């Protein structure tokens, strides 16, 4: 605020009462304000400035960031002018680009940057009712970065100004609520301004508590924020039956683990699971299993069918039985032998060239070949029981 002083007078020039009254009015309009670290106390003997914090001194000519420069009472409120300050936010992107790793923000007052002077050289003022406080309102996103230009706001003196907002996030991945950083309280004591200074430097934010969210489907890796330990807990990736989990550089790899059982019966066996080659492992891709097929062409006497939960191996749908002397010897169902009957085969007597075999009612008997015929030749006849050779002339 600029004093409205009367014009200067030259030596020997009379001083009018108007000039004296204007000087008195200007002096009466002066309000002594405490600097950072000081408080003002009005007593019957005068106005006293005293240090509010021990072992700290401030320059009486320079104002610290966010310090009160002026406070003028207008009606029941005070119009306060603050020394411009900045809000500093660590920025890993800036650091990665070789810069100082910080982003600087100048808060606004009523939409005007607090360090911007008007045409008369005055900084913006903020109107504060008695009993309230000036705050720097800061908002950050889920990544901890300031998401909008901070503003200077007036609110109740007890407004929450905790270090983290929220202190213990229950839902992860949400944007931070406004954080109110208390600067100064405006009070009155016996009708005189009484300031309580809370902050006297630039505001540097500390990246807020990390917040995470599980997305998509499947098991959740992010578990919770452990308020007691002050840590964010994540679940490990653990291998299970048929799968191994291991750390490989920047990745956690889940690898299929399978093998074919040994042949415990001593018979012929084939491997269903195909062991991958080093090239297939390097290229990635699914685990490979051999199919169950009908077999090569010409030998496809079975059928293979896939259902929702099984692979079915079936025969060729041929059913029947083979008999000997009316007795079932071989029974087949769906092309597979299901039963074998007992078959007794009698041994036959031995013979020579020209012999014949016949059954005499008890056993098989050999009818030997006849010798040289005396007459016209041998004739095979049957006497009603057995066959025999006759040496006779055959009359037709």
How would you characterize the overall build of this protein?
- The chain is mainly beta and 396 residues long.
- Among the domains are: 58-204, no CATH class; 356-391, no CATH class.
- The protein has 3 helices and 29 strands.
- The strands form 12 sheets. Strands 11-10-12-13 form a 4-stranded antiparallel β-sheet, with no helix packed on it. A 3-stranded antiparallel β-sheet has the order 3-4-9, with no helix packed on it. It has a 3-stranded mixed β-sheet with strand order 6-5-14.
- The longest helix is centred in the first third of the chain and has 13 residues, at 17-29.
The biggest beta sheet is recorded as: 4 strands, antiparallel
Radius of gyration: 56 Å
Average per-residue pLDDT, rounded, comes to 79
Approximately how much helix is present in the residues?
A: under 10%
Strand elements, count: 29
Largest sheet: spatial strand order: 11-10-12-13
Oligomeric grouping of the chains: single chain
Distinctive features:
396 residues, mainly beta, 4-stranded antiparallel sheet, 3-stranded antiparallel sheet, 36% strand
Reconstruct the topology from this structure.
Layout: H1 17-29, E1 38-43, E2 46-51, E3 68-74, E4 77-82, E5 87-90, H2 92-96, E6 102-105, E7 108-109, E8 112-113, E9 125-129, E10 132-138, E11 151-156, E12 179-189, E13 192-197, E14 203-204, E15 222-226, E16 231-234, E17 243-248, E18 251-256, E19 273-274, H3 278-283, E20 288-289, E21 303-306, E22 311-314, E23 320-324, E24 327-333, E25 336-340, E26 356-359, E27 364-367, E28 378-382, E29 387-391
Parallel strand pairs: 5-14
Antiparallel strand pairs: 1-2, 3-4, 4-9, 5-6, 7-8, 10-11, 10-12, 12-13, 15-16, 17-18, 19-20, 21-22, 23-24, 24-25, 26-27, 28-29
